[in-house]
Amino acid sequence: MSDQLLFSNAFSVRFDGAGSAIAIDGPVEDGPDATGSFTWHHFRREGDGTRAELEALGLDPFVIDALVAEETRPRCTVHGHGAVLNLRGVNLAEGEEPEDMVSVRLWLEKDRIVGVWLRPLFAVRDMLAAAERGEGASSVGDFAARLAMRLADRAEPYIGEVGDRIDAMEEALLDDGEDVSFGDLSSVRRSAIVMRRFLVPQREALSTLEIEDLGWLSERDRMRLREATDRITRLGEELDAVRDRAQIVYDELANRRDELLNRQTLLLSVVAAIFLPLGLLTGLLGINVGGVPGADNPWAFWAVTGGLVVLGVALALWVRKMGLFR
Predict the structure, then answer these.
(1) C-alpha span between 32 and 28 (Å, rounded)
(2) Which pairs from 301-305 meet CB under 8 Å and 24+ separation?
(3) Which domain covers residue 210, as residue numbers?
(4) How far apart are CA 18 and CA 2, in angstroms?
(5) How many domains are there within the chain?
(6) What is the pLDDT of residues 227-271, one digit of tens each?
(7) What are phi and psi of 108, to 5 degrees?
(8) Residue of 132, 130, 134, 131 lying closest to 153 (CA atoms)
(9) Strand bridging mode 102-108 / 82-89
(10) The dihedral of CA 228, 234, 235, 239: what is its sign?
(11) How far apart are alpha carbons 314 and 326 in whole angstroms?
């Protein structure tokens, strides 16, 4: 059931309040038909007639606009007796960038959930699969908390991979002295920054939902929402650590590059300081005018050459004594 529903343009599922759920076709009359039951309607944003379907469900225009908005950030907004909850999950589709996080927009009421998504999320498939096994959500609040936890579960391996990449860079740079690619380092920093940009507001959204005065949220639901909030907070802290460590690696790498450049510049300066006097002397002796000493002596060339060698050695020793070259 999960894969078939996940890639459809729209689906509706009825939860029985005990963890099980069944897919329902056609129009359904919302409201509990048994104690604790609730319905989940989910639509693809780009699907034909999505707005009309949302209007047919009797949703307020404010809620509809929030669900089909072009761009969204994680947030929770209470409206009447329900709440708009926008969350984000890593994009684990083949060929996609995981940090290109996919949004899931939800309208939560006492006995109904209305969702809109842009692209399929594996976390949503996890929710459907759990319900198929009889281990699904028991209430609307429980559904929101479970979905947040599934989103965190899917994000955690990728965040761990980003952490492993910065570990390898630190080990290569600080322990082995090897160079690290600026491109690879920039990729790690970008992944951490982009994911943190959505995870921090997601933590705030879940925290807001947990403390709002909504009668259909039980104490158990609030406890699970707090647990999901703590999980998101921990992931955000890991991303903060990755970002800070990446900055340290970047600074160390930049310092090494600067030090290498300074040493090369110093070497060129030392070479210039040694050969400048020698070049001056050879230039003077090579001018095409009369009176150049030794012009008629056959041994003068070797005398000048020996003098230049002695002068060069003396200049090199002087530079070394001054501490400019080691």
Answers:
(1) 11
(2) none
(3) 2-254
(4) 18
(5) 1
(6) 989 999 999 899 899 888 888 888 888 887 887 787 777 777 777
(7) -110, 130
(8) 130
(9) antiparallel
(10) positive
(11) 15
What is the mean predicted confidence (pLDDT) over 209-225? 89
The structure tokens 């690290």 sit at: 180
The beta-strand segments (E) located in the chain are 10-15, 21-24, 38-44, 75-79, 82-89, 102-108, 112-117
Q: Residue 309: CB partners within 8 Å, gap ≥ 6?
A: none
What CATH number has the domain bearing residue 184?
A: 3.30.460.20
- Is residue 303, in this structure, part of any structural domain at all? no
Please give the single-letter amino acid code of residue 94.
E
| List of residues 6+ apart from 190 with CB closer than 8 A | 99
Q: In which region does residue 9 sit, left (phi positive, over 0), alpha (psi from -120 to 50) or beta (all else)?
A: alpha
Q: Which residues, in sequence order, are CB contacts of 65 under 8 Å at separation 6+?
A: none
Domain presence at residue 32: yes
Band (pLDDT 50/70/90 cuts) for residue 5 is low
Give the CA-trace dihedral at 151, 157, 162, 165, to 10 degrees.
180
Is a pLDDT exceeding 90 seen at residue 18? no
Pairwise CA distance, residues 304 & 282, whole Å: 9
Beta bridge partners of 104: 87, 117
pTM for the complete prediction? Answer: 0.73
In a domain, 296, yes or no: no
Say what the alpha-carbon torsion angle 5, 8, 11, 13 is, to the nearest 10 degrees: 10
Q: Assess if residue 126 is contained within a domain.
A: yes
